[in-house]
């Protein structure tokens, strides 16, 4: 805690001067401004933001309780200590009921200022801690609510899970209102089938005690939705107490990817009908794809072939020929070359290879397609 600004309100100017001097001596962080009346104190509050107010009770015009009520109308949490020479249980009770942070009766001697300084320090420390906590909660709440992902806070209970909180994205992605989720178990909110998928992932996260990522398809009021999910455990004293579930709707993307996968399967089936070996490489000659005939001839599998250099499939004395052909195709767009493949049997067989460059959507060269025709069949 840094400097502590204090507003002391009392109609006894000699007392306020003494109190300011003694408090500032007691604690070097303290800086005291004084006001001779509640009205003056309220005027100072328009331009001054103290960390604590110390006020007398009996003052002309507006007394300390009325001053407190006026302060509380604008500053509900600001520490307010009633420091008064008039003491009674009734006044203390009224002060606390009106929202006073503390009540201290004036005594003779300077020891009371040690006590007052301690009360101020305790009140201000608590005030700043609570303020920081509120601000942190507000910041987290803003992040939570404005996140692009759907966010769920899930309580981990002895026999299952219960939704505690969600942001507006959850309703957008699912069509479920907040009232249909919060306070409910997955089965109550989502139905049996959805709950089994969700609870299974939650149990896995609790068991692993680390973030897990997964994709799940759930049926919601908006229809079947594919969720891409990250679930993170929150632990306390070694136990997982809550889960933070962040998800987004990838239904459209999943559908596009599924269509692309299906198209690739069709293309692969078409290429596998060829009786001639076909290879696809990147611009460096590294194999990206082979058809079935290419794998049969060379004795490779898809796993052992992909990532190797195309020249590794040829005898040593043919590799320079293939390297030159690749360079030529990258430069001119296409070329034809005759070279011998190294067969699965260890023998070699000549093929006439037609090499064509491939381009991406920006018309930049992305790789090569190499189709071989058995030279012995010509």
Automatic annotation (TrEMBL):
Annotated source species? Haloarcula vallismortis ATCC 29715
Q: Which residues form the Response regulatory domain?
A: 5-121
UniProt keyword Transit peptide, yes or no: no
Does this UniProt record's set of keywords contain Phosphoprotein?
yes
- Sorted alphabetically, which InterPro entries does this protein's record hold? Biofilm_reg_signaling (IPR052155), CheY-like_superfamily (IPR011006), PAS (IPR000014), PAS-like_dom_sf (IPR035965), PAS_4 (IPR013656), Sig_transdc_resp-reg_receiver (IPR001789)
Q: Which residues carry this modification: 4-aspartylphosphate?
A: 56
Fetch the PANTHER family from UniProt: BIOFILM ARCHITECTURE MAINTENANCE PROTEIN MBAA, DIGUANYLATE CYCLASE DGCP
- Per the record, the domain of life is Archaea
Q: In what residue span(s) does the PAS domain sit?
A: 136-209, 263-333
For this UniProt record, give its keywords in alphabetical order, as a comma-separated list. Phosphoprotein
BP terms from Gene Ontology: phosphorelay signal transduction system
The protein's name is: HTR-like protein
């Amino acid at each position: 805690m840094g400097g502590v600004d204090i507003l002391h309100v009392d109609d006894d100017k000699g007392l306020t001067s003494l109190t300011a001097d003694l408090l500032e001596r007691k604690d070097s962080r303290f800086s005291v401004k004084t006001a001779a009346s509640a009205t003056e104190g309220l005027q100072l509050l328009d331009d001054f933001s103290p960390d604590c107010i110390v006020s007398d009770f009996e003052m002309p015009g507006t007394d300390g309780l009325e001053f407190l009520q006026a302060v509380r109308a604008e500053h509900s949490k600001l520490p307010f200590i009633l420091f008064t020479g008039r003491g009674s249980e009734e006044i203390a009770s009224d002060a606390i009921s009106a929202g006073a942070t503390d009540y201290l009766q004036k005594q003779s001697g300077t020891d009371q200022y040690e006590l007052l300084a301690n009360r101020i320090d305790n009140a201000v420390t608590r005030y700043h801690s609570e303020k920081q906590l509120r601000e942190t909660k507000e910041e987290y709440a803003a992040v939570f609510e404005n996140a692009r992902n759907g966010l769920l806070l899930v309580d981990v209970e002895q026999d299952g899970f219960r939704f505690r909180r969600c942001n507006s994205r959850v309703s957008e992605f699912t069509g479920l209102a907040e009232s249909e989720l919060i306070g409910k178990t997955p089965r109550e909110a989502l139905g049996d089938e959805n709950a089994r998928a969700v609870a299974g992932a939650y149990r896995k996260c609790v068991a692993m005690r680390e973030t897990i990522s997964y994709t799940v398809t759930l049926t919601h009021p908006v229809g079947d939705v594919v969720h891409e999910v990250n679930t993170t455990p929150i632990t306390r004293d070694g136990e997982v107490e809550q889960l933070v579930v962040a998800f987004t709707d990838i239904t459209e993307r999943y559908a596009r990817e599924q269509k692309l996968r299906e198209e690739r399967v069709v293309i692969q089936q078409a290429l596998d009908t060829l009786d001639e070996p076909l290879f696809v490489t990147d611009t460096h000659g590294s194999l990206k794809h082979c058809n079935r005939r290419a794998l049969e001839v060379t004795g490779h599998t898809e796993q052992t072939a992909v990532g190797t250099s195309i020249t590794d499939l040829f005898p040593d004395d043919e590799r320079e020929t293939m390297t030159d052909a690749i360079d030529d195709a990258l430069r001119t767009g296409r070329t034809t070359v005759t070279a011998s493949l190294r067969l699965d049997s260890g023998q070699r067989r000549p093929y006439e290879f037609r090499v064509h460059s491939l381009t991406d959507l920006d018309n930049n060269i992305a790789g090569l397609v190499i189709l071989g025709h058995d030279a012995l069949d010509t």
